[in-house]
Amino acid sequence: MIHEDKRRFMRMMVNAQAEVTVSQSGEKFLGTCQDLSATGLSVEIEQPLEVGELVTVFINSKSTTIPPFNASAKVVRCSSDENATDRYVVGLEIVQFN
C-alpha cells in the first residue's frame, strides 16, 4: 500500500536550535526544530506543553541574507520522543509571523 501525504505544504527537515516561550507564563525552553513548513513546525524540548497553549518560537539565522524565524504558534500535539524518555516532540501551528 502506498502512503500519500495530503499536506498542502512541503515540510523541510531542519536541525536548528529553537527557543520556545510560553506566552502566558513567559517560561522559556531551548530545543531543536525538527521540521518546518509554511503553516507549522515541530520542536523537540525537555518539557511537555499543553495542546492549545500559545507560544512564541525564535530560530536564529546563521546567514546574513536570511532573517531569523520568529512566530507565534499554537500547540496542536505533544508526544514523548520514542528515543528519549525525557524529551517531547511538540507540533506547532503557526498563528502569526512576528
TrEMBL record:
Q: Which InterPro entries match?
A: PilZ_domain
Q: Which SUPFAM superfamilies match?
A: PilZ domain-like
- GO function terms (MF aspect): cyclic-di-GMP binding
User: Record's Pfam families?
Assistant: PilZ
Domain (PilZ): give its ranges.
5-94
Protein name per Swiss-Prot or TrEMBL:
PilZ domain-containing protein
